[in-house]
Amino acid sequence: MFGIFGNNNGNRHVIIKAPMSGKVVDLSDLPDEVFAQKMVGDGIAIEPWEGIVAAPFDGRVKQIFPTGHALVLESKEGLAVLIHIGLDTVNLKGKGFRVLVKEGSNVNVGTALMEFDPELIEKNNYPLKSPIIMPEGQKIKYVEFTEERKVKRGQDVLMKVQLR
What we know:
Elements: E1 13-17, E2 22-25, H1 33-36, E3 41-48, E4 52-54, E5 59-64, E6 70-75, E7 80-84, E8 97-99, E9 106-107, E10 112-116, H2 118-123, E11 130-135, E12 140-145, E13 150-151, E14 157-163
Antiparallel strand pairs: 1-14, 2-3, 2-13, 3-11, 4-10, 5-6, 5-9, 6-7, 7-11, 8-10, 12-14
């Protein structure tokens, strides 16, 4: 697993750890065509077991969505990653989400970013499957995804990204 990054020969790469503990889900298995067909960008999803989101790498908070259901982080290497809690959860208008950081904040891997109420999301019939996406338009050479089906927040590697 993750064999291509053994010798990086000066190539820039970003290790993205799991921002949530849960079950790993392929984007193609999401019941949302925008994410499933990678219209926003490539990535992977997690069906979380708990309502805590942590920074998957050292970097900064680039954007927080007004409803608190999603945020964008930027790694020190310049890679942007969108963490979107659940699907269609924008419709909750912020209910059940608590952001713990501010835009522009520097974060380290494992820093708590937000809390959310999984029961409230499910009670309102929104899927908990949460995409972790690298938005289109970035200088990505290669992405290697974990083969693990269960990951632990802040500990397990979810993706390794080689930048151009």
